[in-house]
Design brief:
The chain is of the alpha+beta class. It has 2 helices and 5 strands; from the N terminus they run αβββββα.
Length: 153
């Protein structure tokens, strides 16, 4: 039985499975493209930010989202005598606290580009993979349902 019973009402229409697959493929791009972008940004950061230094969490910023507030750590680190301050991706304040010392990965060609090792890069990679996996699963589900519609007749 297909998960979309309304589509199974007229299995004799040969264009229905193709149209359904194209519709779901288009919708799944809404997940796949942002997921791919997040994953590539994460990989690019990891490739470029090859030097490390110890930094300090100095504060937490607050971002307003549709589901409430998200907090992100603000950290400070010093490279070649110059101090940089940067923000991170939203985090649970319980994981870090002001004064914590963390390893900061930075780009030697642009020390202002950085991330907290084991935190920023991983979160962005995981989110990217989850979005891409959702797109692939949605496409597989549409293909499965289309095959059921086509061969159920």
């Amino acid at each position: 039985m297909c998960f979309f019973p309304i589509l199974a009402q007229s299995p004799s229409e040969k264009s229905l499975p193709v149209g359904f697959i194209l519709l779901v493929a288009g919708i799944s791009m809404v997940f796949f493209i942002p997921g791919l972008i997040m994953f590539l940004i994460s990989r690019r950061k990891k490739r470029h930010c090859s030097k490390s230094v110890t930094g300090t969490i100095i504060d937490f910023g607050r971002a307003h989202t549709s589901s409430g507030s998200a907090y992100y750590p603000i950290y400070e680190y010093t490279v070649d005598g110059k101090t940089y301050t940067s923000g991170s991706n939203p985090a649970s304040p319980g994981r870090m606290k002001v004064g914590d010392r963390r390893t900061i990965m930075y780009d030697p060609n642009d020390p202002a580009r950085s991330y907290i090792k084991g935190y920023d890069n991983r979160a962005l990679s995981i989110l990217g993979i989850v979005f891409m996996a959702a797109a692939v699963l949605l496409n597989l589900l549409s293909l499965f349902c289309s095959l059921l519609i086509t061969y159920a007749a």
